[in-house]
Amino acid sequence: MEQSLSEKSSDTAVSRERTARLVLTRKVGEEVVIDGNIRVMLVAIKNNKVRLGFSAPVSVRIDRKEVFDRRLLNEPDQNESCHKLTVAGW
Length: 90
Prior knowledge:
Distance between the termini: 33 Å
Shape: globular
Order of helices and strands: EEEEEH
Strand order of the largest sheet: 3-4-5
Number of helices: 1
Number of strands: 5
Radius of gyration: 16 Å
Oligomer: single chain
């Protein structure tokens, strides 16, 4: 497991948070389980794109990175409902 040290800054202080990165090889149909209740499945590989399917409690928000960044910029309502993700065809 690769470990890195990242710094997060705030207006008043800089705190350090230890994070770990796990890099795995998966075949189509295989899953990774996170914290016992989040599943990530490799659904398909086509050209240079990988399709992932996520199963998680409705209280867990799952966004693509660019959507997550946009939400942070727009300061979304904290009570906004979570979206269920479904796997669609190509």
